[in-house]
Amino acid sequence: MIAAVFDSIPAMIVLTGVLVGLSGALLGSFLVLRGSAMLTDAISHSIVLGIILVWLATSQLSGPVQVVGAGLAGLATVILSEVLGRSRLVRMDAAIGLVFPAMFALGVLLISLYARDVHIDVETVLLGEIGFVWLHTVPLWGAEVPVTVLTLSAMLAINLAFVLALWKELKLSIFDPGLAAALGLAPVAVGYGLLALTSATAVAAFDAVGAVLFIAFVIVPPATAFLLTRRLAVMVVLAAAVAVVSVLSGYQLARLWDVSIAGMMATMTGVFFAAALVAAPADGLLAQALRRRTQRLDADCAALVAHLATHAGTPAMAEESTMRALVDHLRWPDARARAVVLRGLDRGLIRRDGSGLVLSPKGDAMARALLAG
Amino acid sequence: MADSALHEPGLALHVEDLTVAYRDAPVLWDIDLDIPPGVMAAVVGPNGAGKSTLIKAVLGLVRPVAGHVRLFGRRCGDVRRRVGYVPQRSSVDWDFPASVRDVVTMGLYGEVGWLRRPGRSHRARAMAALEQVGMQDYAERQISQLSGGQQQRVFLARALVQEADIYFLDEPMAGVDAPTEAAIVGLLKGLCDAGRTIVVVHHDLQTVTRYFDWLVLLNRRVIAQGPVAGTYTAANLRATYGGQVVLLDAAEG
C-alpha cells in the first residue's frame, strides 16, 4: 500500500508541494511578523551560490551535506547584509539588495561555467521542477521514495520541533526583543536560528520549487493568515491550511491547463491572498469600505438630527423638515438624502409626520447630547 | 575585585564611570549614579540626553565603552529575576497577534525558562497582575484593539507580574490620559511602599515633585542627583536644560 503511494507520481508531486508549504507556513509566520520577508528573498537567492559551491566541492546535489553547506550561504547573506547595514553607509533594505544579487549572480556565473552539462541550469534554479521529483529516489521500507520528499520531511520535522520548542522564545523575541534580552532569552540567537532553518529549508525545497517560488510559499500563506486572525497559533494553522489548499488546487489547475505545476501552486497562494485582502471579515477592503460607509451614514444621520432639532418648534420647521430641504439646504444629492432618512428611520431617530420629518424621543435625546457636547 | 564579590550591596543601583557611545559618538559621559533601595526615582533631562540609553546600558541591552553597573551589588546578568523593565510603548508593534493575557505572561518567560511552557500558576499570576491595573476584563482582547492608555497598563501589568525588586520604566506616562497616569503613579507608589525601587524616565517637569522622592538630572552627564527636595532647583534645571525650559515652580522646589 505504502509502495503504491510512493509509486504514484501525482501523489509524490502533491506530497512534495505539501511538505514545502507546511515548512514555509511554519517558519514564514514568524518571518512575516518579524518583518523579514525581504531577507527571505535574499536567502532563497543566495543559496544558489551555496548549492553550486557544494556541488563543485563534493559533487553532491542533495542530502544533508548540501542542505547544511548551501544553507550557510543563506546565513552568510544575512550576516553580510547586517554588517553592511550597520555601517550606516547604506540603508538596511539597500544592504540586503546589494548583497544577494551579487551572490546570486556569482552562483549563476559558476553554473554557466562549470555545470553546463548537468541537470542544474538557470531555469531550474529559479523555478525548480516539481514534476520530476520522482526521478531521483532511494529505496526505503520496500518503496522507492524520492530523495526530495525525504529531505523535505526531515526539514519539516526539524522546523516543527524548533517552532514548538521555542514558541514562546520566538514570540517574545519578535514582539519585544528588548524584554527578551533583559530576561536572558537571547533574541539574537533565536532570530539567527529561525533564519538558519529558513536557509536550510530553502535548499531542501530548491529542487522542487526553485529559489523564487520558495518565497511565495514562505511569505504569502502567512501574510494571508495575518489578514484573517490576530491569534498567533491560529495564524500558523491558517497559513498551513492556505499552503496545503494552494498546493492541491494548484496541482489540479496545472494539470487542467498544462502549465508549470510549481508556478500554479504559487499562483494559488496569491489568489487566496487576494481573496483575503478583499474579503477578510475584519480587515479586508470590503469590510473597511462597509465600515466607512456606515460611519459616513451615521455622521450624516447626526447632522440630520441636529438640523431637525435646531428648527424644531420654529415657524420654518414645516419647510426645513422636508426631503426638499435636505437636498436644497444641506446640499445632499437625492440618493444620499434618501439613504440618510432611511438610516434615521431604521435607527428610530426620526419619524414621518405628513410631508416632513420629526425627531423621535430617541432622536431628541441624541440631539440634546450632540448639541450640548 | 573578584567577580563574585558584592560591590556596593547597599545600593539598589550603582553606576560607576559609565560611558556609552553609538558609533564613536558618546551618548553618555562618565556616569556616576547611585540610587538607594525603596525610592521612587525620576530620570529627567532634555531630548537626546541619553535617558533611555542609560536604562538600556544598566540592563545590559547596550554595551558600554567603559564603566560598570551593579544592581544590589551584583552584575545585571546575575539578578535578572529581580529586575523589571517597561520599555517605551512605541518600541513594539501592537499589531502583533497576541492577546492581553499573552503579553502579560511574557513577563514570566524568564522565570518559566528555556523550552518550557507557562503553566496554570503563571496564567493565574498574569490575571492577578491584570486585576491590579484594572484590565482583567480585557484578558482575551487582541492587543491591536487597545487604546494607548490600555497598552501602557498592559505593559505595566507585564512588569508587575515579574515581582521584581527594582523596576525600570521608560516614559510610562507618555501619551496616556489623566486617569491612566493617576493609576500608574498610584501603582508605582504602592510598589515603592512595599520596599521596591522604581526608576522612571520622565518627561514632565511639572509633576516631578508630586510623583517622585528621588531625582536624577541627566544631559549626557549626570547634572545632579539626590532627594527631590534638594535636587529640584532652578540652578540644576537650568544646568540640565541649558535655559530652554520655562522654569515653572522650580524655585519653590
UniProtKB/TrEMBL annotation, chain A:
Keywords recorded for this protein, A-Z: Cell membrane, Membrane, Transmembrane, Transmembrane helix, Transport
Name under which the protein is recorded: Zinc ABC transporter permease
Membrane topology designation: Multi-pass membrane protein
Family per similarity comment: Belongs to the ABC-3 integral membrane protein family.
Localisation per UniProt entry: Cell membrane
Transmembrane residue ranges: 12-32, 39-58, 64-84, 96-115, 145-167, 179-197, 203-220, 232-254, 260-286
Database matches in Gene3D superfamilies: ABC transporter involved in vitamin B12 uptake, BtuC
Entry-linked Pfam families: ABC-3 (PF00950)
Annotated signal peptide: none
GO biological process: response to zinc ion; transmembrane transport
GO cellular component, one term: ATP-binding cassette (ABC) transporter complex
From TrEMBL, chain B:
Molecular functions (GO terms): ATP binding; ATP hydrolysis activity
Domain ABC transporter: 13-245
InterPro entries: AAA+_ATPase, ABC_transporter-like_ATP-bd, ABC_transporter-like_CS, Metal_Ion_Import_ABC, P-loop_NTPase
Source taxon at top rank: Bacteria
Coiled-coil ranges (or none): none
Family assignment from sequence similarity: Belongs to the ABC transporter superfamily.
Name used for this protein in its record: Manganese ABC transporter ATP-binding protein
Species name: Rhodobaculum claviforme
